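quick q for whoever's on today - can somebody do inverse folding on this one?? i tried earlier but teh output was garbage lol. tokens:
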């Protein structure tokens, strides 16, 4: 029985992690030599953040462009501050650039950003193919449509490239007058973030419907899908489930739809950006085709796994299980399965902590919670095995329901009456034991709970010896 429990624990652990990480097909993907249209590019790697003032070296951008040039013909950037070297590197690798100015509530910062955008566009007219003034400013409610129109008209008068503004598609429907200030309309189609999120099965239909709505309201105007994509990690929003497999399905199916329909598009985004989790939650950091360390996630081509490193997590869970099992002992098959369950849940918690922790403090807090949970499981297993939690001390139940003060009041009634018909109404019977004292009581008072060593506390599962004094005939006194 014990060997069967051990084998079952190992098999169930293997099945759990294999199911989480097995490779799946996600449709027809990118073909070697094919150039996709455009992708959003933010240069920060793991550990860097614009919120912390991280400086990006040109060689880092060059390394990224060398990778992206195999898949895309264009990159979109959202701000031009500290990006003076980017157009030269894009030209080196045959990439064009959709350059953006980041517009906020800060008027001084906006003026500097617009001035740099104009200068960069005029300096690199063969590299910068279009200019976007602002990104989701109306969504963030940081500027009005009239204020944005003034920025757009100023830039249009100063550059030769077509000028636009990027925002969620329904904000264009709410502010149709903004179309007079742009050369083309840039819409963001993100089914995951919609007010009524779409599941992966309906995501492309939602994209097509939104694109058609914009075409009806702005006939004859060119439309650029400035952002579209699907997250690979994060919280579920109704039927919208983030995962690598779902991300690959959406991206591949969208590319096929866009190429067939003749749409202009920009995918979001090239690389995972963990720093975005501070503002958008866990999901904000995981929209990339590649992870933050520039490792291919399998989104564009080939089979894809939701957890590529599942073998490591399996080994970690088995190691934790062995530690817990050794502490509890190998006699109780139930303890073996409980230890395996606790070990796998602990490994899963550590996996999620790594994905969701935005700061070292959050990571430390999650690790502390894991340690507390492990300590609770350890103590539980020791009680279940009938061992002391700490060496050198006698095992005793700490559950208030097992304390002498709360012991069943039916005992006194049993000794006061000859019929032995008193029933315990405070605590249901857990199970029958085999000692003579308990059998006598169970036959005469079948609802009564006896503190016998064969009975386990239903609240803390500890086992403790029967401490009731007995008469010579074996019944409790």
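ok took a stab at it. sequence:
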């Amino acid at each position: 029985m014990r060997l069967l429990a051990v084998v079952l624990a190992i098999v169930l652990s293997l099945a759990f992690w294999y199911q989480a990480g097995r490779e799946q097909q996600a449709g027809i993907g990118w073909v070697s030599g094919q150039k996709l249209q455009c992708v959003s590019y933010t240069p920060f790697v793991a550990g860097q953040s614009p919120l912390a003032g991280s400086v990006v070296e040109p060689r880092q951008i060059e390394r990224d462009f060398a990778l992206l040039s195999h898949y895309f013909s264009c990159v979109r950037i959202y701000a031009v501050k500290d990006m003076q070297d980017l157009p030269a590197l894009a030209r080196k690798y045959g990439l064009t650039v959709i350059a953006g100015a980041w517009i906020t509530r800060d008027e001084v910062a906006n003026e500097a950003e617009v001035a740099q955008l104009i200068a960069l566009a005029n300096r690199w007219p063969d590299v910068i193919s279009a200019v976007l003034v602002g990104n989701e400013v109306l969504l963030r409610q940081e500027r009005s449509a009239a204020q944005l129109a003034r920025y757009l008209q100023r830039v249009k008068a100063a550059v030769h490239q077509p000028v636009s503004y990027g925002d969620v598609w329904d904000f264009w429907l709410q502010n149709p007058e903004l179309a007079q200030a742009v050369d083309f309309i840039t819409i963001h189609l993100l089914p995951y973030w919609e007010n009524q999120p779409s599941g992966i099965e309906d995501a492309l239909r939602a994209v097509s419907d939104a694109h058609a709505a914009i075409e009806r309201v702005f006939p004859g105007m060119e439309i650029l899908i400035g952002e579209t994509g699907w997250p690979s990690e994060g919280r579920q929003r109704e039927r919208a489930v983030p995962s690598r497999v779902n991300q690959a399905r959406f991206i591949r199916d969208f590319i096929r739809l866009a190429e067939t329909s003749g749409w202009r598009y920009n995918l979001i985004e090239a690389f995972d950006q963990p720093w975005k989790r501070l503002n958008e939650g866990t999901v904000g950091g995981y929209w990339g085709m590649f992870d933050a360390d520039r490792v291919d996630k399998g989104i564009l081509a080939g089979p894809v796994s939701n957890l590529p490193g599942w073998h490591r997590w399996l080994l970690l869970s088995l190691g934790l299980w062995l530690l817990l099992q050794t502490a509890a002992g190998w006699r109780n098959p139930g303890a073996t399965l409980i230890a395996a369950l606790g070990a796998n849940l602990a490994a899963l918690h550590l996996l999620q902590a790594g994905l969701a922790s935005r700061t070292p403090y959050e990571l430390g807090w999650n690790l502390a919670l894991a340690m507390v949970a492990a300590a609770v499981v350890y103590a539980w297993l020791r009680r279940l095995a009938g061992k002391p939690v700490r060496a050198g001390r006698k095992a005793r139940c700490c559950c208030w329901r097992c304390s002498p003060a709360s012991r069943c009041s039916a005992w006194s009634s049993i000794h006061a009456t000859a019929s032995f018909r008193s029933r315990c109404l405070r605590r249901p019977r857990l199970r029958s034991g085999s000692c003579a004292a308990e059998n006598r009581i169970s036959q005469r008072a079948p609802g009564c709970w006896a503190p016998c060593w064969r009975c386990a506390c239903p609240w803390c599962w500890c086992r403790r010896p029967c401490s009731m004094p007995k008469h010579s005939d074996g019944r409790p006194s």
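fwiw The chain is about 40% helix and 10% strand. also The mean pLDDT is 82. so keep that in mind when u check it
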